[in-house]
Amino acid sequence: MRTVIHDVRLFDGEKTSRDATVLIVDDRIADYDGGPADVEIDGAGKTLLPGLIDAHTHVFGDNLAQALRHGVTTELDMFCLPSQLVAQRALAAERDDVADFRSAGTLATAPGGHPSQLLAAPGVDALDVEPFDTIERPNQAEGFVRARLAEGVDYLKIVVDDGAVHGAELPVLGADTAAALVTAAHTAGLRVVAHALTAAEVRIALDAGVDGLAHVWTEPDTALVDRVAAQGVFVVSTLVYFAAISDRSAQTPDCARAGTLDGATRVARALHRAGVPLLAGTDATPFVPAHGVDLHTELRLLTEAGMSPERALAAATSLPADHFGLTDRGRIAPGLRADLLLVTGDPTADIAATSAIAEIWRRGVRQAR
């Protein structure tokens, strides 16, 4: 199957060009050779983007299908229990009407630590959440990582969270255990992403040597921003997550200490100015934030935090591909996967145009609209 998109504005993951012609051959992007096409699409007035990558999600049920309907062609899951991991990986491999999928599998947290309190919340029992491994001591780190490798994880997530942001008091990994987990994961060739929501928790994660942070935090701290930049650590934004918990804290007295969107936005702005790689992610769940649609909200929030629309688009395409080793996607170039999003208008000038979806391709398969 040969598909040609003519005369389209092209954001290739890094830069924008005009009046481009893009050829899709089967599941790949190819050099345009002027030959005949099975399908020709007029791209005038439209912009072609790499398929979007959400760098922080939690996948259950039909969430991957929901994501793809909104142009998210890859989800980076940050906590998926073994039975779900097997099922979702098979779904992504066998079907082209769902987003692709990478996962941290079972995250590393203390017994009773975050997110245990969320798994007891109303409605979560419908997800059939099973008991999962936890870790207490540094000498358990190698065994914990071996078990994750046996699950088939793509990276490791560790949790450094005492519950304060959630209005709770929770057991938390010790600094020595966090460091041991990072060492064991790096020895096994895995990247490590840390869930940490306060400045103090971020310092523990940085001391441990993590590669990335799964969220911005909520307390502006210039020295900490400079340290993140100096260590070359990437940060997943999840501003829409902070918007959700800010709304909840306004309605629920026991969440009065919840982090605010204002604080998280100020931290995101400082990180961007310091040159820290910010990756667009939502912390999407089967509840709130929502898969797919809320990545478009996240892009808007990133521009409100000071990013140009073009940089925000990179945060949802080339940057997550680079930092998670996804060398076959995140850009539009010959030889890469044909995971593509065609939108009406110019999102490099007005980020809201990402929601004006005209066409979606996943692995070269044009999705029904």
Describe this structure in a few short sentences.
The chain is of the alpha/beta class. The protein has helices at about 65-70, 80-95, 140-150, 175-185, 200-210, 220-230, 240-250, 260-275, 295-305, 310-315, 320-325; strands at about 1-10, 15-25, 30, 40, 45-50, 50-55, 70-75, 100-105, 155-160, 190-195, 210-215, 235, 280, 340-345, 355-360, 365.
Strand content: 15-25%
State Rg: 20 Å
Category from helices, strands and their pairing: alpha/beta
The helix content is: 25-40%
Low-confidence stretches: 252-258
The overall strand count is 16
* Number of DSSP helical runs: 11
Mean pLDDT level: 94
- The oligomeric state is single chain
What's the SSE pattern? EEEEEEHEHEHEHEHEHEHHEHHHEEE
Which overall shape is indicated by the principal axes computed on the Cα atoms? Answer: globular
Biggest β-sheet strands, sense, barrel: 8 strands, mixed
Tell me the distance between the termini: 19 Å
